[in-house]
């Protein structure tokens, strides 16, 4: 089983399943080869039980749209209200809820929506504070949203067309890169207590530009792994409620992507 750089999509439940969607053929078990492939996929995810409806692509799309919509509305309302002090408490609550969802492998829609709302508030507060800190940053939030949506759609097209294959080698490389970036962020934070600007990874310098671009690239390619895991869940006949967990996983990647795009735009606006 391939794992994802997104912690929400690791260690998913195992069991026997059946296919309900074929990414290549778009149909229901359309032949011997497809059937054999989907039987193998089914071993990776819990199968819908008696009386449960199997997961479909529409389920994933709708739940992801709802989750992203809640975050967007919460973010806009927070930015407009001026309650920027909510950034830290919202982030802390969202982080705690995310740990509960990940470690309990929960598909509880209430938890997923709470996480989404908290992240929306946190990002809205950060964006609002940045936008109203000076004329140089006006409109930066809208640009970051458009940029995030553009990357999401672009990587979805890349995945569906097979332009970049999600192979075990690709997955290992991406996970390694994600860990490396996370380590650099922690080291830069610690170094900031002793050196002005830390390692210069977040100070608007040329190195900071490069680091943000690398982070955006890794976050973008992480979406491919998220799409692949969602595709496997559909093929494996996971229960429809599992769409909420998939939506949560995608949301965690989008939050990271938005933050990095916003940061890069802030560097550009300072010039």
From TrEMBL:
<feature type="transmembrane region" description="Helical">
    <location>
        <begin position="207"/>
        <end position="225"/>
    </location>
</feature>
<feature type="transmembrane region" description="Helical">
    <location>
        <begin position="142"/>
        <end position="161"/>
    </location>
</feature>
<feature type="transmembrane region" description="Helical">
    <location>
        <begin position="173"/>
        <end position="195"/>
    </location>
</feature>
<keyword id="KW-1133">Transmembrane helix</keyword>
<dbReference type="InterPro" id="IPR010539">
    <property type="entry name" value="BaxI_1-like"/>
</dbReference>
<dbReference type="Pfam" id="PF12811">
    <property type="entry name" value="BaxI_1"/>
</dbReference>
<keyword id="KW-0472">Membrane</keyword>
<protein>
    <submittedName>
        <fullName>Bax inhibitor-1/YccA family protein</fullName>
    </submittedName>
</protein>
<feature type="transmembrane region" description="Helical">
    <location>
        <begin position="237"/>
        <end position="259"/>
    </location>
</feature>
<feature type="transmembrane region" description="Helical">
    <location>
        <begin position="83"/>
        <end position="103"/>
    </location>
</feature>
<keyword id="KW-0812">Transmembrane</keyword>
<feature type="transmembrane region" description="Helical">
    <location>
        <begin position="110"/>
        <end position="130"/>
    </location>
</feature>
<feature type="transmembrane region" description="Helical">
    <location>
        <begin position="60"/>
        <end position="77"/>
    </location>
</feature>
């Amino acid at each position: 089983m391939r794992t994802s750089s997104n912690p929400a999509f690791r260690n998913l439940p195992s069991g026997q399943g059946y296919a309900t969607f074929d990414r290549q053929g778009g149909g229901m078990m359309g032949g011997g080869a497809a059937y054999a492939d989907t039987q193998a996929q089914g071993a990776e995810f819990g199968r819908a039980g008696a009386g449960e409806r199997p997961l479909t692509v529409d389920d994933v799309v709708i739940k992801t749209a709802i989750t992203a919509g809640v975050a967007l509305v919460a973010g806009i309302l927070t930015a407009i209200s001026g309650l920027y002090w909510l950034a830290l408490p919202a982030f802390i609550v969202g982080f705690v809820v995310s740990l509960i969802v990940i470690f309990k492998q929960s598909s509880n829609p209430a938890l997923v929506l709470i996480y989404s709302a908290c992240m929306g508030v946190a990002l809205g507060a950060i964006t609002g504070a940045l936008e109203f800190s000076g004329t140089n940053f006006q409109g930066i939030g809208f640009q970051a949203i458009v940029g995030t949506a553009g990357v999401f759609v672009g990587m979805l097209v890349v995945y569906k067309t097979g332009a970049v294959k999600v192979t075990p080698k690709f997955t290992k490389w991406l996970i390694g890169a994600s860990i490396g970036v996370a380590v650099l962020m922690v080291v830069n934070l610690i170094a900031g207590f002793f050196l002005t600007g830390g390692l210069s990874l977040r100070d608007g310098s040329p190195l900071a530009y490069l680091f943000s671009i690398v982070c955006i690239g890794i976050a973008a390619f992480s979406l491919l792994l998220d799409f692949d895991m969602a595709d496997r869940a559909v093929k494996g006949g996971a229960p429809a409620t599992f769409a909420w967990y998939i939506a949560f996983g995608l949301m965690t990647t989008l939050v990271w992507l938005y933050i990095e795009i916003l940061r890069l735009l802030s560097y550009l606006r300072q010039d």
